[in-house]
Amino acid sequence: MAAVVVEGLGKSYPRAETPALSDVSFQVEAGEIFGLIGPDGGGKTTLIRILTTLLLADHGTAAVQGHDVVRDFRAIRSLVGYMPGRFSLYQDLSVAENLAFFATVFGTTVEANYHLVADIYSQLEPFKTRLAGKLSGGMKQKLALCCALIHAPEVLFLDEPTTGVDPVSRKDFWGMLGRLRDGGITIVVSTPYMDEAARCDRIALVQKGKIIALDTLNGLLESHATETFAVKGKALFPILNDLRAYPGTRYCFAFGQEHHLVLEPDAGGPDAALAYLRGRGHEGASLRPTRPNIEDVFIDLIHEQTHD
Amino acid sequence: MTEWVIEAENLTRRFGDFTAVNAINLQVAAGEIFGFLGANGAGKTTAMRIFCGLLEPTSGRATVAGFDAMTQAEQIKRQIGYMSQKFSLYGKLTVKQNIRFFAGIYGLSGQQVKHKTTEIVERLGLATAADKLVDDLPLGWKQRISFAVATVHQPKVVFLDEPTGGVDPIVRRQFWDMIFEAASRGMTVFVTTHYMDEAEYCDRVSIMVDGSVAAIGKPADLCAEHGVANVDELFVALARKATRHGD
Questions:
Q1: Rg of chain A over CA atoms, in angstroms?
Q2: If you count DSSP H runs as helices and E runs as strands, how many of each does chain A have, helices first?
Q3: A298 closest CB neighbour out of B168, B194, B239
Q4: Which residue among A120, A295, B35, B66 is least crowded, i.e. fewest CB within 10 A of its CB?
Q5: Is the CB of residue A181 less than 8 Å from the CB of residue A193?
Q6: Cα nearest neighbour of B221 on chain A
Q7: How far apart are CA A65 and CA A79, in angstroms?
Q8: What Å distances lie between residue A177 and A85, A145, A184, A248, B195, CA to CA?
Q9: Which residues, in sequence order, are bridge partners of residue A258?
Q10: Among A54, A80, A66, A53, residue whose Cα is nearest residue A27
Q11: Taking CB atoms and an 8 Å limit, are A256 and B176 in contact across chains?
């Protein structure tokens, strides 16, 4: 049985020009980490709030662990753990008090389920008498995860748990999620960081209320393997501007210490592009084929949508 | 001779017995894009607040645009631009009203304000959105307008505190196009980010660990020196050595 089944979900907010979600369908398998990846305003939070029974959809149906999100909302609430995007623990309760509170609300105790959070909570234990409001960002995030886990949920919903968190803390956090998944918990997690796709079993790219692609990371990379060239050179910004002015360029974007260039099919290929760059005074410029990464795929998909 | 727009010399800031910034040294040249990296709690925000004239150093020296952070904080505030995700535009004002408001705050004349408003609206392609409330605009537009507003008075240096969170890969790069363009006109850009590919767009970066500058230099040179493939790996290698946690 799939852990989450979504069929034709739609949701609009008053005043908004475009729907927050339109005709979204997918399934999350039990025991996988399913990533909702895309920019803010794309509909990720709306989707998670519908699945955690905090918001009603206008159209379509959704079920979590076989329970309908409208009819069986009570059953779902005790089966899922939810970590909202905004820190929503009690800032004037201590670390230990917050954890005990969430355990009690769900009719259990910290002792009964401590094994679920031990890995993460042990890092907070030295600060357990500190008020939650006085914790650092990274520690708040860990406490929120503990509080979402303490009633032994079957499905965990995490809304942008790593936004604004530094790369090292992000890597640690994903390590924790991997161990929870290995322990049998299904995880649905949203993120604006494309590189985190590599940590998910499957990902849905979400943009403007729609899922524009859904697959494993490797599946996505293989099915969207647009021929891409990495361009290097001394004066990167002028090179970028010159490449964008080149008639054979479909699009070109900066990627760290190089640019990724996609050419129009009839543009004379990489040799013509390189000759053009040399002609514009970029003598030392180089151009070689490169393997597109997840950001290239996302850019390609957005580009297709806006230029069709 | 290189003109240094930001200079820190043994710059230190303590809060009680906690040393948030511990004797850091760095220099940022005019027109440079400087990436100021570090884990949460490494001391970036404290250092940035000193550079912006919002916090006095405990010891050591910081000068920004030629003014001393200890004694000339007010002059510094006039010479810099500042933008962050948290503090930027007024959502209940229109785009034009925001530009007019910030330009007025920075002391531009009525004529200049008019000129600047037209120029920014044109440059950002905002003609259809100029009279809309900022709250109703997509995040990527807000970020670009914030940048335009933070630089409306042509400051020598602009401080960007995690300016690009939460937008798609194209919009994130469009923001960097604005940074490149500003730097090519001679503006100094001092930027913090958690996107390590953005760190590689910088002319130079520094990485703070536990209040100190653990590395400073050109991204490619630093990667070669530490035997890593990219700034992400460099960051992880250095930040893992941190002994203090949280901010």
A1: 23
A2: 10, 14
A3: B168
A4: B66
A5: no
A6: A257
A7: 8
A8: 16, 10, 11, 44, 21
A9: A255
A10: A66
A11: no
Alpha-carbon gap, residue A204 to A202, rounded angstroms: 7
Q: Which residues of chain A have pLDDT under 50?
A: none
Q: Which helix (H) or strand (E) holds B216?
A: strand B212-217
The region of weakest confidence among A123-132, B194-203, B235-244 is: B235-244
**Nearest Cα residue in chain A from B44:** A166
**Residue type at B35?**
G
User: 3-class SS at B27?
Assistant: strand
CB contact under 8 A, A253 and B170: yes
Interface test with A, best of B36, B178, B194, B201 (most A CBs within 10 A): B194
What pLDDT does residue A138 have? 81
Question: With an 8 Å Cβ cutoff, are A138 and B139 in contact?
Answer: no
What pLDDT does B247 receive? 44
Q: How far apart are CA B76 and CA B68, in angstroms?
A: 8
Which helix (H) or strand (E) segment holds residue B192: the answer is: strand B188-192
pTM of the model: 0.89
Q: Of A169, A189, A185, A206, give the one whose Cα is nearest residue A52.
A: A189
Cβ distance of B201 and A240 shorter than 8 Å:
no
Decide if B197 and A255 are in contact by the 8 Å CB cutoff.
yes
Is the pLDDT at B246 greater than 60? The verdict is no
- Could you read off the pLDDT of A147-166 as tens digits, one per residue? 999 999 999 999 999 887 88
Measured between CB atoms, does B180 come within 8 Å of chain A?
Answer: yes
Residues A266/A272, Cβ–Cβ less than 8 Å: no
Task: Please report the pLDDT score of residue B234 as a whole number.
Answer: 95
User: Look-up: residue for tokens 């949460």?
Assistant: B40
Window B:74-103, CB contacts with A under 8 Å? 85
Query: A-chain residues within 8 Å CB-CB of B164?
Result: none
Which of A136, A236, A254 lies closest to B40 in CB terms? A136
What pairs with residue A268 in β-bridges? none
pLDDT tens digits, B67-95:
999 999 999 999 999 998 776 799 999 99
Reduced to 3 states (helix: H, G, I; strand: E, B; else coil), residue B176 is: helix
Q: How confident is the model at residue B6 (pLDDT cuts 50, 70, 90)?
A: very high
Residues B150 and B118 sit within 8 Å (Cβ to Cβ): no
* CA-based nearest residue to B106, from B131, B133, B71, B82: B82
Q: What is the pLDDT of residues B104-135, one digit of tens each?
A: 999 999 999 999 999 999 988 888 999 999 99
* DSSP letter (8 states) at residue A131: B
Interval A9-68: pLDDT, tens: 999 999 788 899 999 999 999 999 999 999 888 999 999 999 999 999 999 999 999 999
